[in-house]
Amino acid sequence: MTFATHHLPAGSAADGPYALDIWPEQAGWSHSSLRVLTLSPGSTHTFTAGDSEWIVLPLAGGCTVTVDGEPFELHGRKSVFEGVSDFAYVPRDARVTLGSGAGGRFALAGARCANRLTARYGPASDVPVELRGTGNCSRQVNNFAAADAFACDRLIAVEVLTPGGNWSSYPPHKHDEHRPGEESRLEEIYYFEIEGDAGLGYQRVSPSRSGGTDVLAEVRTGDAVLIPDGWHGPSVAAPGHTMYYLNVMAGPGAEREWLIRDHPDHAWIRATWPGQPVDPRLPLYTAGEAR
To answer: 75-90 b/e with 16+ CB inside 10 Å = b?
Structure first.
């Protein structure tokens, strides 16, 4: 059974121990998955990777990730707004146990894949932190599992932080067709957290074809948006509330690459960026630094 909507408010896609549980059959596609797991202090959770590779990424707190008997200690972070996190890569067909003495919340970003790579630890200090855009299009991208930053078989995942009042995922862009050297076909999940009480933001997805994905959603902490196709953006952060989202992507292409095509009506905005300063609130933090 697939989800009836592309916007999944917090709690609407919960299942068992997972506050959010998105897998390909529910999303109506073939590759991308995302789970958010909450562990109480001293608790553990075990799962099997199956036919997918996974990255365990702390959202709040730290944990031990044991992959086929090999432990990886993740120091984690207080929150997504207070530092880059270390992470663990889990290959397909592995048996995995997460345990946390102090408790916390952890994202499990997954992608169906064919090849079994080696389980690995990803240090926070090695995560490339990029400032993208300028002016009120300024945002911070933590490229922990970008296609050119960390080796996976199919999975691509990054974090984006947008200061209050700014727009990100802008200009609107898409990656729903295979165009060699120009555009890659990728299914994408956005998972949101908004800083501050009653924080909110907005996410737009507009159709790139007849009958395509069409979303205009008010998003809050714990919400997710599914993007099988379409021009996605902007992601708008309300003034006073920094917006965080985790992007999880995977697709059927022979190459693991992130190639996007900007919406032709809005692509010109990129040419204005060199003449403007980057938002002085950025970076919120750098790799290996806690705020």
So the answer is: ebbebbbebbbbbbbb
Domain ranges for the chain, please list them: 7-275
Residue whose C-alpha is closest to residue 201's, from 221, 231, 173: 221
For CA atoms 250, 252, 253, 255, the dihedral sign is positive
Terminal alpha carbon distance of the chain: 42
For 7-275, the fitting CATH number among 2.60.120.10, 1.10.10.10, 3.40.50.300, 3.40.30.10 is 2.60.120.10
Using DSSP, state whether 182 is helix, strand or coil.
Answer: coil
Cα separation, 103 vs 39, whole angstroms? 5
Average pLDDT per 10 consecutive residues for the chain, totaling 291 residues: 92 97 96 98 98 98 98 98 98 98 98 98 98 98 98 98 98 97 97 96 97 98 98 98 98 96 97 96 84 47
3-state secondary structure of 275: helix
Residue count of the chain: 291
- Decide: pTM greater than 0.90: yes
